Amino acid sequence: MLPPDLKHAEAEALEAMRAAIAPAAPGARWTVELRFEGLRLLPVALRLSAALVESGVPLKLLCADMGATALARRDAPDLAERIASIGDQIRLQAEGPSEGVLLLLGASQAEYDQVEQLC
What we know:
The protein is mainly alpha-helical. Helix content is 48%, strand content 10%. The chain contains 5 helices and 3 strands, in the order H-H-E-H-E-H-E-H. The protein has helices at 6-21, 41-54, 66-75, 86-95, 112-118, and strands at 59-63, 83-85, 101-104. A 3-stranded parallel sheet has the order 2-1-3. Strand 1 (59-63), helix 3 and strand 2 (83-85) form a beta-alpha-beta unit. Helix 1 packs across helix 2 and helix 4 runs parallel beside helix 5. The model has no long low-confidence stretch (mean pLDDT 87).
């Protein structure tokens, strides 16, 4: 059954993400798609990220580029140290393996090669 509104959809997505992360095997990948006309993803991703961090999940929110990263940091200063671009994360992983959950925000086909490199 479809959720009646965005608030319920976010709650269901959060519950599903927590369930998927709990028994997580290294390298596991999941996708959450929300299909609402005119939906701005950043506020939703920031609310989901804050809820996951609050429940103790070691999380990093990755944006496609530096502009989106700057907007996310501006809109969520309490999560700023957990927000980076995909390119930043690739550079960090080149220095050594990282642990935790990577939440990619709105990665498009243009970022496919970088996302594949991350995975």
